[in-house]
Amino acid sequence: MAFLLRPETMNGGTASNGLHLNGQDSLVQPLLTDFYQISMTYSYWRSQIHNEPAVFDLFFRKNPFQGEFTIFAGLEDCLRFVENFKFSVSDIDFLRTLLPGVEEDFFEYLKEMDCSAVTIHAITEGSVVFPKVPLLSVSGPLAICQLLETTLLNLVNYSSLVATNAARFRLAAGPKTNLLEFGLRRAQGPNGGLAASKYCYIGGFDGTSNVLAGKLFGIPVKGTQAHSFICSFSAEKDLRVREFKTKDGKMIDLYALAMKKRDDIMDKLFWGVSSSEVSEGELCAFVAYAIAFPNGFLALIDTYDVLRSGVLNFIAVCLALSECGYRPIGCRIDSGDLSYLSKEIRARLRNVAELDESLSWLAKVTIVASNDINEETIISLNEQKHEIDSFGVGTHLVTCQKQPALGCVYKLVAIANEAKIKLSQEVAKISIPGRKMCYRIYGRSGSSILDILLLHDEKPPEAGHQILCRHPFEESKRALVLPSRVEPLHKLFWGDGKIQYDLPTLADIRTHVRVELDRLRNDHKRQLNPTPYKVSVSERLYNFLHSIWLQNAPIGQLD
Amino acid sequence: MAFLLRPETMNGGTASNGLHLNGQDSLVQPLLTDFYQISMTYSYWRSQIHNEPAVFDLFFRKNPFQGEFTIFAGLEDCLRFVENFKFSVSDIDFLRTLLPGVEEDFFEYLKEMDCSAVTIHAITEGSVVFPKVPLLSVSGPLAICQLLETTLLNLVNYSSLVATNAARFRLAAGPKTNLLEFGLRRAQGPNGGLAASKYCYIGGFDGTSNVLAGKLFGIPVKGTQAHSFICSFSAEKDLRVREFKTKDGKMIDLYALAMKKRDDIMDKLFWGVSSSEVSEGELCAFVAYAIAFPNGFLALIDTYDVLRSGVLNFIAVCLALSECGYRPIGCRIDSGDLSYLSKEIRARLRNVAELDESLSWLAKVTIVASNDINEETIISLNEQKHEIDSFGVGTHLVTCQKQPALGCVYKLVAIANEAKIKLSQEVAKISIPGRKMCYRIYGRSGSSILDILLLHDEKPPEAGHQILCRHPFEESKRALVLPSRVEPLHKLFWGDGKIQYDLPTLADIRTHVRVELDRLRNDHKRQLNPTPYKVSVSERLYNFLHSIWLQNAPIGQLD
Fold this sequence. Notes:
The structure is a homodimer of 559-residue chains. Chain A is of the alpha/beta class. The first copy, chain A, has 2 domains: 25-173 and 403-552, Alpha-Beta Barrel (nicotinate phosphoribosyltransferase); 224-388, TIM Barrel (Alpha-Beta Barrel). Helix content of chain A is 37%, strand content 17%. Chain A has 17 helices and 23 strands. Chain A is elongated, with a radius of gyration of 29 Å. Residues 1-25 of chain A have low confidence and may be disordered.
């Protein structure tokens, strides 16, 4: 079992900081990088510029999903990586095979390398963030900062993307609908699945089907049964255990009771169904499940026919359980027209509830829907006034089908105290040079108005003091803003060789996401044609940027 | 460092079976599953049907990427999972918290559970496969087989999807073009990145930038430098080391030599470039890299302007290196019109090569292209007769942007020797009941004609004996086929509690993919409107399927 590394030893059982990365991080190590980081490091070292002080910014250029906001996630993973950054002996041996002819002293240099000379300013995990603003600003010796690039990008890119996706589902579904992540089977392997569970929870999901995510991160775990369970019962003969202990300790035959309840309903309420249409096996499966989980009865009702079989068997078992003193939870549908079916199911539940005052709870049991649900499906279902209480979402959520990559980049913005710019024919791809700080400006309404980038040695904006905010690239776009409140976005998270904060729990980060989204104006959040949020620069940074740009842009020559 | 589980202890250094799963598999364990598998298992156990003999098929319903073939991958991961399937003490403790009120004997049952009673027939990893054909057929006690579902799906889904994607890139690029996987920074976390590297290699890529994938799986590792490296040098003053040892041991100033070469070329060949346009910093960066890697010089030439700066500096350093006895490798472009630029670069290389016979090698150095490359880009570049020798592909490859999930399913097809069918309003979603075997029928040309599913106890088709092949759902579609060769697709991979084969190495699987694709007719492989490959059933299976279907389909009733 050597290869089966189990997180046993480190698992206390609930989500806490030490736990977030258990197991998952067996792979987060210096070699989880692109080879060119290593070959560049050698060139820096060989050129004796490896220790030049450098600053790299990690940022993205465009919000995902045609939206106008992003949730920043993955910071703790980045900090843990930096904290533990160390090449092992076998890493060095392997690198030697990749780099024949390289001077041996270089490997000695790698062996000694750690991140004690690195400083990381970052935005708090779970914050709402926007294009061009550095999520992380990494400074320190050129070669070490360069070596962190790929791993940091890997840790931020997908985490932020899927957290943003989850937040969009949450906005679409509204605050009350239960959202469950069911994506493990469609994720990019085991860790892709775990990362999805973790960051969807941060983004606003209520639970996951992924048991290991529950164990490692303390995320609520949910789930009931699959079609294969229902299909495992064909007829009464397959139901070997029918005896059932009621809440007050009497033994009864739950199957017989459910059959009686079903006959009752079919007598009393005419739903156009003949008893030959109602599946025998399905009722047996429901009874078996109810016997196992009398307090957790949630039945999958679409294996045969939702309205001509599933809902009848479901109600029958609900009534039987209720008579035995238990309260059923609800039902799930995984196919068909989810809005129509949910309304038809609710109508039937209400029909039965109206038969007797003591059955009023039945009208309110949970209806869970799954099957290829995406953000648009939820919005469309809302318009159709569905009766769904809970969505189970898999593929579209975890694969981020609409845009499967965020596209964060990591750009050198200063070296040896000289600002650097990455030029490009596309203005959108030009990076903002120099070491910067970012502030979020809030208006009188309490909503954020814009973010402003300043050079790191500029005086921060202050509440009550007007500030000129400029578009970084369009000269004529500028505005005077009077902040009611100024929030510095960048904090020192890594310095002096250690993490500078008690990192928040997953639940804290999840709450932070909700608070942050609440503070963002609705027009930035809406699904259709949202308003872009402004990211501006100070007058000084504007002038600095444009002077560096001109210094670096070659003067073309026309024939 | 407790959480940083390193695969140190198990790593011999090269790819071999034991190694494939190192580290990566810290997460592949029984709890990496959907919770409903556990709750269903309890219900089966509580109903005393947990030991009923069951058969589950793992298959997909539609080829990905609008194509007509799929590469099956992930089998070894599945077998290792099954081999090591065991709940730990802390797993059981955690499940106890999720399942209050569950009988304690159930946990004893879980504790003892392993896969020794499970049998897995599967198709060889790396085979070309088609919809509806079981990739794995898992038989054994109902509850255990049920518990394997999610993890097996997770291990097969993404692996097969990305291997198929890689194979499609390979088909588009042709057999000679070098394909490199650069996707780590855009993958679903660390393990998503590693899985991508591994299965892209299987699918036909030549190497990866992911160093850890090189260490763990023995995949060739490639890469050179990023824009940040080029930007780290602004002017001559930044080049602290210029001395360079020629192949025959003389010390020279490589920068001075490269400058001289550049002036020479600019004198001799008029490319409409003035020397003010050629970046000084870029030349310094190239010289620094060449000093570090005289035998591995591959320069990124698009930081400033490919044709007015990069290519000139590149050629200058190539000529200088060559004069010192070294042979440069090539250059990389990461932006712009890749076809146009590659042709212009090649033309300039040829211009210079024509100046002197001893420079003929220069015309043939490698041109690498990267930047948002997908299958269509490659096809379009081919039509434009590009001059690219090697593609670096990231985002589109690893995220499978065109279709980020394969959609494998795991369906119960028999229980207690009774065949089961999963009905659906959509015919495409109906599963084929019963335990089956699949054979691939080859025609006289050596290409495969079709696959045929038979009931497991039917006599296999034989070469030279005509067989009737039927469409599973369309009565009128049937054909008599005379096989030249018959290949049984399903082999027993897991039985008697152990893996039944010496599993192939990654390189073997990669070769198998190539051979399999060669045997598939071109019309199934082409990118535009490919011909669907036929998956048929035997006469007996056809009749069996339709009788079970009728038995199970409810008789509707019209008002």
